[in-house]
Amino acid sequence: MDKKTMKWLGALALMVMCAFSFSACGGDDDGVNGGGDINSISIVGVWRAYYDSNDPSRGRVYDQITFNSNKTGNFIEEVGYGSDDVFGFTWAQNGNLIRLTLNDNQGIINVAIIEVIDNNTIVINNGVRTYTAYRQ
């Protein structure tokens, strides 16, 4: 091969390499489980956390947590057993972590840390137990 052909093939090879290096890979910005950027997932809505009650006669129960867009909400404990205690709370989000500050109607403040896993799943740690809640 002559010098002119070698330069042309070299330039062609360089262009091909550049074309591949600038192409994007799909899925890099899909977030967790295709839910988008984990930090932009809205927590607003109703969530339920199912677990086994401390009272064996109740069996499996759930807490219902409602997050409002104005950074308030309510927490209903062990829904469906006549003593559905409802507590108001405020919340603040920092990335995928949410700090929930709950007033138990007796002036006692409780704090829970919530981790957003994806658009439909959060993990709640209230200092007593850790459990998972699902969007309704």
Q: Please indicate the percent range of residues in DSSP E strands (runs of 2 or more).
A: 35-45%
Q: What class do helices, strands and sheet pairing give?
A: mainly beta
Number of distinct beta strands: 8
The low-confidence runs, each spanning 5 or more residues with pLDDT under 50, are 11-35
- Number of H- or I-type helical stretches: 1
Basic shape = globular
H-E order:
HEEEEEEEE
What does this structure look like?
There is one protein chain. This protein is mainly β. The protein is 14% helix and 44% strand. Strands 1-2-3-4-5-6-7-8 form an eight-stranded antiparallel β-barrel. The longest helix has 19 residues, at 3-21. The chain is globular and about 90 Å long. The chain starts with a helix and ends with a strand. The relative contact order is 0.15.
SSE layout and pairings?
Elements: H1 3-21, E1 45-52, E2 60-67, E3 72-77, E4 85-94, E5 97-103, E6 109-118, E7 121-125, E8 130-135
Produce a short descriptive summary:
The protein is mostly beta strands. The protein contains 1 helix and 8 strands; from the N terminus they run αββββββββ. About 18% of the residues have low confidence.
Task: For the structure shown, list the relevant keywords.
1 helix; mainly beta; 136 residues
